[in-house]
Amino acid sequence: xxxxxxxxxxxxxxxxxxxxxxxxxxxxxxxxxxxxxxxxxxxxxxxxxxxxxxxxxxxxxxxxxxxxxxxxx
Length: 73
Description:
56% of the residues lie in helices and 8% in strands. By secondary structure, the chain is mainly alpha-helical.
């Protein structure tokens, strides 16, 4: 719930300042390749709630911006 509110606020802020939101979604394999870590590492950080993931479609999906934020933290 908290994550969704933050995402909506970021989206609203982007609209206010005129930025278009173009966020790519990745599955766990793509995310692990993008971050140069194993899928197990990705799962561990999701479980610890240090990395956001969506599983509404039956598999874990990650926003590119969330991965960038996680890598830069």
